Structures are given as C-alpha cells and as structure tokens.
Amino acid sequence: MMFSKIHLQNFRNYENEMIQFFPGTNILIGDNGQGKTNIIEGIYYLLTGKSYRVHREQELLRWNQSEFHLYGEFLINQHKVSLESHYKDKKKMVKINQVSCQRLSDFVGTINVIFFSPDDLVMIKGGPAERRRFLDLHIAQMRPGHVAILNAYNKAIHQKNALLKSFSERNYKYSQIQIWNNQIVELGRKIILNRFDLTKRLQDAAEPIYANLSSNKEKLQIVYNSLGKRSVEEAINEFPELMNDKLEQEIERQMILIGPHRDDLQILLNNRPGRLYASQGQQRSLVLSLKLAELELIRQEKGEYPLLLLDDVLSELDRFRRDYLTRFIESSSIQTLITMTNADKHLELGTLYIVEQGHIRRDR
Ligand SMILES: Nc1ncnc2c1ncn2[C@@H]1O[C@H](COP(=O)(O)OP(=O)(O)OP(=O)(O)O)[C@@H](O)[C@H]1O
Ligand SMILES: [Mg+2]
Predict the structure, then answer these.
(1) Which CATH number applies to 1-111+306-364?
(2) Residue 243 Cα, ligand 1 centroid: separation in angstroms?
(3) Where is the RecF/RecN/SMC N-terminal domain (predicted)?
(4) Model confidence over 164-202: pLDDT tens digits?
C-alpha cells in the first residue's frame, strides 16, 4: 500500500492544498503554528473518520467556512483507490472510489494507520480509559466488528444505569435488570476476549523491542486486568456471578459497578507500574516499544506495514531512541510522514516538504 496524494479544502488552516507523497520517509518541516499537525490530522481523519484531537467536526472547519473536503489517493496492489470525506451542514459523507459509502466502518481497516505523538505518553501517565482506548483502537483496525460491539455494550450499560437510578422509587423488578445483565455479559465477554488476545500478542512483540532499547537491562510487561482477574478464563467464566454479587451494591449506589468498561491494562517496568515508577525516558521507551509492536502486529496480520504518522516525536526522544526509531523505519521501508521544526532537523533521508502558513511545497 502506498499513500500517494492528499487534497485538503477548508480543513483547519488549509484553504485549498494538494500534496503528493512518496514511498519511504516524507518529512514535513516548518515553524510552529504553520500547519504540520493539521495535515497529519487530516490524513488520520480521512482514514479513520475521527480526529484524535477533537470530538466535533465543527472545529476542523477552516474558520468561517461551512464545509470541508478531504480527498486521498492510495495504491493498493498497484490499483488506485480514492477516499473522500466531505463535511457539510453538520453531516459527514464518505466516498470510496467515488461511490458513497454508508458507514466508514466498512472501510476502516482497509488502509491501516498508526499515529504517534508526544501526547501518547498519556498511555502511561493517564487513567485506565486511555489504555482501554489504545487497545480498542488497535482491535478496531484489525476486527471491524469490534466498534459495533463496543457501541452496543455502551448502550446497554447506559440503559442499565438509567434503570438503576430510579430502581427503588419506581418499584422496578429484578428481572428487568437481568435483561440488561445478560446483554452486558454477552457483549462484555467479546470485548474482554479481544482485549486479552491483543495484550498477549502486543506483549510478545513489545518485550524484545524494549529489551533492545534498554540494552537488555530492563523488562516491559503488559497485563490486562479484567473484572479484577488476570486470567481470561476466570474473567469470562465468572462474569455473570461477579455481576450478581454486585447487584445489591449497584442498586444502593445507583450505578453499574462492574464490567470491561472499568478494566485496565497494566504497563509494568521490571514488574512495577510504569505510571508510578518509570522515569520520563523510561516512559517514552515504553510507549515507543508499544507503538513499534503495534506496527509489527499489523504487518503480521495484514502482510504489510501500516502508514506511520509521527507528529513531533523525534524532538522528544533522546539520540539513542531516535536512532532506533529511524533505523526501524528505514530498514523496514515503512511509508512514514514525519513532522518536525527547523530547530530539530534529524533525518538526512527522504522527501522533504516545507510547511508555511497553510501552504506546502516540496523541497527535496
Ligand atoms: N479551524 C481552524 N481554521 C483555521 N486555522 C486553524 C484552525 N484550527 C487551527 N488553526 C490554525 O492552524 C495553525 C497551524 O496549526 P498546527 O497545529 O498544524 O501547527 P504546527 O505546524 O503543527 O505547529 P507546532 O510546530 O507548534 O506543532 C495554527 O496557527 C492554528 O491557529
Ligand atoms: Mg504540531
């Protein structure tokens, strides 16, 4: 797969800009506030239907405009594939090869993408929701059905919560809660299985990478913890019983207290939580290892590497980790888009673009 072209119209600070990309490394250089992150965001949005920065499309619109349009071209097995995303009057429209597509989820996963920025440190520093999101985003790219399961699960816990809020005053019956519990268990088990499975495969891929990054001195380990259990069998088998045990407490506190929406992925360094004990540099190595492991997993499953988007990452890494990452990219010939400011030019190889006030021109 090769990403060959993007056309941005009224997206963020781009009025009407077309850029051609090449295999290998594509470097976008520019001062602060010129539009480097905005291109990366546009590409990510085109491929996933979501921005990683904001929840509302409204903020992606160029100021005082009412519609934006993104158009991308890809080469898949020598065939040109086009993808369009059009936002107008608060509605999203997606086209693949000029044909309207009802749901982007039908497309997500055709062209895989991995995005990496300094904000990814929240995977370590942030709460469990960040780590669940990391797992779910990866699973969604590999198994498109995962998003539908997550949506249905969230709807079920929302309904159960609503029931719990007025349970005593309205004289609801236990059997009404049981209906939701059954759904939550059925959908929740699928989510739990997917997340355990991914954790194991990520662990296998990330452990040797981290060992390399730390010159075999330190050990990364990731452990998925579901319903307070570390074993997938226990979590799956005991889910209904654990849920029943919580019922009285749930009615009393008027909220759902157990389920995979409260699970956590522990990221451990030498058997201790990275969040509490790892240094800044070690935390960056943990995230870098997990991101590179993600790339490997996609290659194993899809037979080729995904498109890699690196926003501002190199300036955050020390020389050793930077060299490790650039060697990885160059030796595997992953198509990569990297942004950096003039101040931290590191890469010698690749196609170079200058980004200036919402305009981009090729320089090398
Ligand atoms: N909706 C929008 N419409 C128009 N301009 C916008 C919009 N959203 C952001 N901008 C502007 O786009 C400019 C470029 O932002 P961007 O985040 O891409 O910069 P950058 O080149 O990545 O800078 P840095 O090196 O600081 O990360 C900013 O000046 C910002 O004010
Ligand atoms: Mg930026």
Answers:
(1) 3.40.50.300
(2) 47
(3) 4-345
(4) 998 777 677 788 899 999 999 999 999 999 999 999 999
Structural contact between residues 268 and 307, judged by C-beta atoms closer than 8 angstroms = no
CA–CA gap between residue 15 and residue 349 (Å, rounded): 30
What pLDDT is attached to residue 22? 96
Question: Which CATH superfamily is 120-304 part of?
Answer: RecF/RecN/SMC, N-terminal domain (1.20.1050.90)
The reply to whether 33 sits in an annotated binding site is yes
- Give pLDDT tens digits for 58-93: 999 999 999 999 999 999 888 999 999 999 998 999
The ligand 1 atom at the shortest distance from the C-alpha of residue 40 is 18
* CA 31 – ligand 1 centroid, Å: 11
- Protein residue closest via CA to atom 9 of ligand 1: 12
What span, in angstroms and rounded, lies between the C-alpha atoms of 151 and 255?
A: 19
- Burial of 70 by CB count in 10 Å (0-12 exposed, 13-18 middle, 19+ buried)? buried
Q: Measuring from atom 7 of ligand 1, which residue has the nearest CA? A: 12
Question: What CA–CA distances, in Å, run from 81 to 2, 92, 225?
Answer: 10, 20, 40
pLDDT at residue 346, as a whole number: 63
Measuring from atom 12 of ligand 1, which residue has the nearest CA?
A: 13
